[in-house]
Each structure stands twice: as C-alpha cells, then as structure tokens.
Amino acid sequence: MHLGAQLPLLIRGVYYEGWRPAKTPADERQPAEFAALVAAQLPPSFAREALRATQAVFGLLEKELDRGETTKIIATLPSPLRRLWPAPTGGGSGSA
Questions:
Q1: Percent of the chain at pLDDT exceeding 90
Q2: Would you list the DSSP string of the chain?
Q3: Cβ(88)–Cβ(67) under 8 Å?
Q4: Other CB atoms within 10 Å distance of the CB of residue 80
Q5: Exposed (0-12), middle (13-18) or buried (19+): which is 77, by Cβ within 10 Å?
Q6: CA neighbours within 13 Å on the CB side: how many for 3?
Q7: What does the alpha-carbon distance between residue 46 and residue 1 come to, in Å, rounded to a whole number?
Q8: pLDDT in tens, 53-87
Q9: How far separated are the first and last CA of the chain, in Å rounded?
Q10: What is the largest CA-CA distance in the chain?
Q11: Is 60 exceeded by the pLDDT of residue 9?
Q12: Residues in Cβ contact with 54 at an 8 Å cutoff, skipping those fewer than 6 apart
C-alpha cells in the first residue's frame, strides 16, 4: 500500500486494477515461477518476455523510488526473487 501511494495517479490505477488482496501474496518463490505468473497477466506478445519485463519494472522502481522504500520492497521478496532486483543506483528521486 505504501508503494501504491507513491505512484502517479494513472499508474496507481493500473497498479490496483484487478488486485484481489485475498489472493496475495502469491506463493511463487523462484524466478521462473514468478515469470510464469507475470506472463499470465501480460498481453500474448509480451508473455515470452515476462522475466525481462519484471526486471525492467524492478529497475524503474529502483530508479524512481526513494532508497528507504525500495529497501522495504526488497525485504518482502523471497530470497530467489531478490536477485531480479538491480543493484542500488544510489539515488531514487522519491518523486514517482
């Protein structure tokens, strides 16, 4: 919820669209399993690139959010999924 509060209004709408709190968090712990979950939500032409899409989203979050928030997000990820997160860039703007 704290992450969603930092997102611009339009992105926040997409972030929450279709979200079912009772069905989260997902049980996927390995990158391939998580990518399959992401692929199921992507348009068919993007589904084969789900792992790359996940890494791109994580990269954008790392770049745009403040370091404290990204530290919290990373801490919630299962250890195998943390490897998908990029190395800290040293300065999220916090103005996402």
A1: 8
A2: -HHHHHS-HHHHHHHHTT--GGG-S----SHHHHHHHHHTTS-HHHHTTHHHHHHHHHHHHHHHS-HHHHHHHHHHS-HHHHTTSPPP-S---S--
A3: yes
A4: 14
A5: middle
A6: 16
A7: 27
A8: 889 888 988 888 888 888 988 998 889 999 999 98
A9: 14
A10: 35
A11: no
A12: 34, 35, 38, 84
Structure tokens of 12?
Answer: 């926040």
Task: Provide the residue count of the chain.
Answer: 96
Please, what is the Cα angle at 43 between 77 and 1, to 5 degrees?
Answer: 35
